[in-house]
Specification:
By secondary structure, the protein is an all-alpha fold. The protein is 88% helix and 0% strand. The protein has 3 helices and no strands. α1 packs antiparallel against α2 and α2 packs antiparallel against α3. The chain starts with a helix and ends in a 27-residue tail after the last helix.
């Protein structure tokens, strides 16, 4: 900037000197002091030129100094610019590194969040599966308990019916045995009664036989006591003997008839006893056997998916 100012001043001086030379040449044509003026002018011009040269030299020095100063400033500016660029580059690199680190941290955070979300989803899915498994096992356990209770109840009812039937059978059997004992006692009473009757008939027949024998002997004695002789006596004795025989035969027939009646009555009593025994046995019913008891349900296989529990 100073060099341009010095060059402008030098051009102005040159223009001024040219004007002065033109003026001196014009005046020196007829005037005496033209040379003096010209010399003076020349001197002035020379001095002016020297001054201008000195000034130009000073200006050049100032311009050089200014140029050096400007160059130094330029170098300083370049150095500052380079430093600023280096600083900016360093800042940019630092910023880029920070951005990369932030991006990396952001990516790592996103990955961690995704992993956490995935783990949370897996845990929730596992918890849901575990809940479903627990509910399924609870349902299986409840169904097993209900089935076991139902089978136990059925077994209890069957055993109760068996005990009831067995007690009824035992009671009927006892009543039947008592009835059969009573039937036997009744038959025995009939037997005893018929035997007593037959014995009384036999005793009565024995007494009658004795009476018949006595009457026969009396009749024979009466016939013989008459003192008759001959065939008529024999006929009368034989008639008495025949009457005795008829009477004894009649008694024996009565005894046989009584014995036959007793046997018939005892046979009837025996038949009635057998019929009553059969009725008593028929009233007993069947002898209940130990019933078949339904098996208890087996322990179920609970659901196990191998899912880890998160607690």
């Amino acid at each position: 900037m100073c060099i341009v100012a010095g060059a402008g001043a030098l051009a102005a001086n040159i223009a001024l000197a040219s004007t002065a030379v033109a003026t001196a040449s014009t005046v020196g044509m007829g005037i005496y002091n033209a040379n003096a003026q010209a010399a003076q002018a020349q001197a002035s011009i020379n001095m002016a030129a020297q001054q201008q040269q000195a000034q130009i030299s000073i200006q050049n020095q100032q311009a050089q100094q200014q140029a050096n100063f400007q160059q130094a400033q330029l170098q300083q500016q370049q150095s500052q610019f380079q430093q600023q660029q280096a600083l900016q580059l360093q800042q940019q690199q630092l910023q880029q590194q920070q951005n990369l680190e932030q991006q990396l941290q952001s990516q790592q955070l996103q990955i961690a969040q995704q992993q956490q979300a995935s783990q949370t989803a897996q845990e929730q899915a596992a918890i849901a599966r575990n809940l479903q498994m627990s509910q399924a096992n609870t349902e299986i356990s409840n169904r097993f308990r209900n089935q076991t209770a139902a089978v136990n109840n059925e077994r209890t009812q069957i055993l109760k019916r068996f005990e009831t039937d067995r007690k009824v059978y035992q009671d009927n059997r006892l009543r039947a045995e008592l009835q059969k004992d009573e039937n036997l006692s009744a038959a025995n009473r009939v037997y005893v009664s018929e035997q007593q009757k037959l014995e009384e008939k036999r005793k009565e027949a024995a007494f009658k036989a004795q009476a018949i024998m006595a009457r026969s002997i009396g009749a024979k004695g009466a016939v013989l006591a008459t003192g008759r002789t001959g065939q008529s006596i024999g006929l009368l004795v034989n008639d008495a003997e025949r009457q005795k025989g008829f009477a004894l035969a009649q008694e024996r027939a009565m005894i046989d008839s009584a014995q036959t009646a007793a046997i018939i009555n005892m046979d009837q009593a025996f038949g009635q006893n057998q019929a009553a025994d059969r009725r008593a046995d028929a009233s007993v019913g069947f002898n209940p056997e130990l019933p078949y008891l339904p098996s208890l349900p087996e322990v179920p296989d609970f659901v196990s998916l191998g899912i880890p529990s998160y607690t």
